[in-house]
Amino acid sequence: MRIPLPKVRRFLNAPTLALISAITFSFTLALSATHAQAADSPTLKIGTATSPQIEALKVAAREAKEQGLDVKIIEFTDWNTPNAALANKDIDVNYFQHIPFLENAKKQGGYNFVAIAPGTIMKIGLYSKKIKRFDELKNGATVAIANDPVNGGRGLLLLQRAGLIKLTPGIDYRATTLDIIDNPKHLKIVQLEASQLARSLDDVDLAQGYPSFIKLAGTTDPNSALLFDGLENKNYAIQWVVRPDSVSDPRIRKFIAIYQHSPAVRAALDKAFGNLYAVAW
């Protein structure tokens, strides 16, 4: 038997009714706020440098859209603008740099950034369209390496591993040409923008190369390096980098989780890089 509402009210005192009304009102407000927040949630803007990496990011963005998160991937053609854009709040997060590069950028640019999660580790190699073995390099041959302090050092370390130069003992990725203590072939080492190294292969005898840029340029087979560095050093893993106030941004955390766990994203990375990359998470 249903009890008419007026009779129910007689069993409840005024304070109880007031409490019920307050709870109902609060729940309604919370529900409305949740819907409004979902509807008004700003687009997550992710900056990256031109690379085949972008296809995997687009795959993750499509999956994020299906889960209610709107994402815009913004592509930059150099390695300086993504950090400037992050500092200026033109983007919310960038994904293109490893820890050594980030630390150098913070020092030189005065940036206050935080790396919150690792991404992929990319191999680099020494490439040539003119020789098949290092002992074929002629005296005075021209070798191109990256011109930024970190990646240039990484290139010099690779030249040392190839037996072409010797560096100051114990030096790490911060090596510069001033750390060369032996250069038996009198190699002429030129420094170029890292993204342009792939296009230098017709003009130099040997070049430090990034498989991703080589693939974009189509100048040679990305797998054809005479020597690769390994994938075991997680210092070289690309990082998700944010401003300190965005460390706990749930949109960024959600997108990173999608990127790291999506089979479709992994398939896109495999298609782009084959065995030239590894995941660092």
Automatic annotation (TrEMBL):
| Signal peptide region | 1-38
Taking the first listed entry, what is the main subcellular location of this protein, grouped into a coarse class? membrane
Instruction: Name where it's found.
Output: Membrane
Which keywords does UniProt give here?
A: Lipoprotein, Membrane, Palmitate, Signal
Q: Which domain of life is it from?
A: Bacteria
Q: How does it sit in the membrane?
A: Lipid-anchor
Q: What's this protein's family per the entry? A: Belongs to the nlpA lipoprotein family.
| Name under which the protein is recorded | Lipoprotein
Origin species, per record, is: Paraburkholderia bryophila
Organism phylogeny: Bacteria, Pseudomonadati, Pseudomonadota, Betaproteobacteria, Burkholderiales
